[in-house]
Amino acid sequence: MNRWDTLNVGSSEMPIYVALPNNGDSYPAIVLTFHRTGLDEFTKESADRLAEAGFLTVAPDFYHRHKAMDAEEAVKLRNDEEVIADISATVRHLNVLDNVKTDNLTIMGHCMGGRTALLGACVFPDSFKLCLPFYGGGVFVAWGDGPSVFERFNNLKCPVIGFFGNDDENPSPKDVDKFDQRLTELSIEHKFFRYDGANHAFQNTMNPSRYKKEQSEDAWQKVIALLSERFL
């Protein structure tokens, strides 16, 4: 089951896709942050899959300030402070829903959403208990003024479980090594799964040139098992 909610963020209305589990009264929740092509069928499909596993999943539309643009234009205007405001509004919304276990929030995302998931976990360390970035690129560069996501790693508190393709260039395997080294220095619990034969967007069912079913399904099984072990 799914629905759309709408939140006011500043002077703009932000749509949120809400995927609800089919049974139970209260659920652990996941904030799912989208890739550069926006809140498309892949993101909704991913939210629905998480809901089927028992997790209320919300996907906020970070492009809401640029409704007249397509995703390839809107992505050029991404800004960390605006994304932070959107994540904050999403967390507040989850906190007032009756059927959410607010002490068990996860943030997860694909592509630039992997970067956004890390950003959210860094900026709201007391809100998120787990961060699941998939091949998040651009971690070393800020969107707008302020520090990069990598420079914010020292604010992290929650475990980071990441999924990466060894054929990817952004983040490259060397970039992932840097993530690993920094999180180790900070004593942040983390584990990275790295897939041979997988490039960027290896989970994206809408991108047949990049989608890798075997690696994607292995990652999905690991995600569901991890979430279930920790929160169900």
Question: How does this structure look, described?
Answer:
This protein is an alpha/beta fold. Helices cover 33% and strands 25% of the residues. The protein is built from 6 helices and 8 strands. Strands 1-2-4-3-5-6-7-8 form an 8-stranded mixed beta sheet, with helices on both faces. A hairpin with a 2-residue loop joins β1 (2-9) and β2 (12-19). The model has no long low-confidence stretch (mean pLDDT 97).
Order of helices and strands: EEEHEHHEHEEHEH
Gyration radius from CA atoms, angstroms = 16 Å
Report the end-to-end length measured between terminal Cα atoms.
19 Å
For the report, how would you describe the main beta sheet?
A: 8 strands, mixed
**Helix percent band:** 25-40%
Low-confidence stretches: none
Please state roughly what percent of the residues sit in beta strands, choosing from under 5%, 5-15%, 15-25%, 25-35%, 35-45% or over 45%: 25-35%
Sheet with the most strands: spatial strand order? 1-2-4-3-5-6-7-8
Count the E strands: 8
Write a brief structural summary.
The protein is α/β, with parallel strands linked by helices and 232 residues long.
